[in-house]
Design brief:
This protein has 282 residues and is mainly beta. Helix content is 6%, strand content 43%. A hairpin with a 2-residue loop joins strand 9 and strand 10. The N and C termini lie far apart (68 Å). The relative contact order is 0.14.
C-alpha cells in the first residue's frame, strides 16, 4: 500500500516539475505554420512602372515542390486564370497564360489604367482528392497614383465600343441563392451579335465585392459544353444562350453587399468587357 502511494506521489512530483510556470505563463511548444499552396519567385514584385509588364511565378505545393500538373482540356476550368482587378473595381484584365513543364507561369499583361491592382491566380490543379481549384492573391501597384473612383449605381445598359449590353428587368439578388441575369447584346447597327468561344466559354461573368474584393466566376456555355459549368459546393451554376445576342448569366454570390460584374465576351476578334453594379441582399 505504501509502495503504491509512493509511486503515485512520484508521478505527481514528475508532472508538477514538468508543468512549472513563470510570470510569462506556462511553456507552450512552438508549432510551425501549416504548409499551404503559395506563390514563389513572383515578378515584378509589388509594383510595376508601366501598364504593360511581364508577370511570372511558380505555385509551390504544401510539399515544397512546384505545382506542374494542371487540368487540361477544352473547357475554361483548366490551367490558370490570371485576373487583375483595380482596388476600386474600376477595371480588370483577364489572361490564361501558358505553363512551363517546370510549372513556371509567364505572361505579358496590360492593365487599362494606373492604380493598385489585386491579382487573382485561379488555379485548376490535376491532383488526387477533392480539390477542384483554389485562388492565390498578390497586390501590384501599377504606374503612378490613381485616385479611387466611387462605384457607380446600377445601370441596365452598357455600351462598349458601340456594342450594347442590356440587362432585362431589375436584378433581385440574394446571397447564397442561385439566380439568372438575362441580357441582350447588339452590335453597333442594332443587330444581335454572334458570340465567339473564348477560353472555353461564350461569356465569362467575373464578380468582385466592393471593399473585400471577394471573388466569384461563372460562365455562359455553348451547346454540348458540359465542361464549361461552374461548380460551387453542391450547386452547378451554368449560364446559357438561346440564340444570337442572348446571354443568361448564372449567379451565386456568397455575401450580401455591392458587387461589380465584369461580363466578358468575344465577338469576331474583339473581346468586350461590360461592367455592371449589382446590389445583393442578405
Amino acid at each position: 500500500m505504501r509502495a503504491s502511494t509512493a509511486l503515485v506521489l512520484l508521478a505527481v512530483t514528475v508532472l508538477a516539475a514538468g508543468c512549472s510556470g513563470s510570470s510569462e505563463g506556462p511553456a507552450v511548444p512552438t508549432v510551425g505554420a501549416a504548409r499551404t499552396f503559395d506563390l514563389q519567385g513572383f515578378a515584378p514584385g509589388s509594383s510595376a512602372s508601366s501598364r504593360t509588364f511581364d508577370l511570372s511565378f511558380t505555385i509551390r505545393q504544401p510539399s515544397g515542390k512546384p505545382l506542374t500538373a494542371y487540368r487540361r482540356g477544352a473547357g475554361p476550368h483548366t490551367g490558370v486564370h490570371l485576373i487583375l482587378v483595380r482596388s476600386d473595381l474600376g477595371a480588370i484584365a483577364h489572361y490564361h497564360p501558358p505553363i512551363g513543364a517546370d510549372g513556371k507561369v509567364e505572361e505579358r499583361v496590360t492593365v487599362p489604367t494606373d492604380g493598385r491592382y489585386r491579382l487573382v491566380v485561379d488555379a485548376y490543379p490535376n491532383l488526387a482528392g477533392p480539390l477542384r481549384n483554389f485562388q492565390l492573391f498578390h497586390w501590384i501597384d501599377v504606374g503612378g497614383d490613381a485616385p479611387a473612383q466611387p462605384t457607380p449605381a446600377f445601370k441596365a445598359d452598357q455600351v462598349v465600343d458601340g456594342y450594347r449590353f442590356h440587362v432585362l428587368g431589375r436584378p433581385a439578388l440574394h446571397a447564397i441563392q442561385a439566380a439568372t441575369l438575362s441580357m441582350k447584346v447588339t452590335d453597333p447597327s442594332g443587330k444581335p451579335v454572334q458570340f465567339t468561344p473564348w477560353f472555353g466559354a461564350l461569356a465569362h461573368a467575373i464578380f468582385f465585392r466592393s471593399g473585400t474584393l471577394s471573388y466569384f466566376h461563372s460562365h455562359v456555355c455553348g451547346a454540348n459544353a458540359p465542361a464549361c459549368a461552374s461548380t460551387t459546393g453542391p450547386s452547378a451554376v451554368t449560364g446559357t444562350t438561346s440564340g444570337p445576342g442572348r446571354l443568361d448569366v448564372g449567379v451565386l454570390l456568397p455575401l450580401p453587399g455591392t458587387w461589380r460584374l465584369f461580363l466578358q465576351t468575344k465577338v469576331g476578334d474583339k473581346v468586350l468587357t461590360a461592367p455592371f453594379t449589382l446590389k445583393v441582399a442578405p
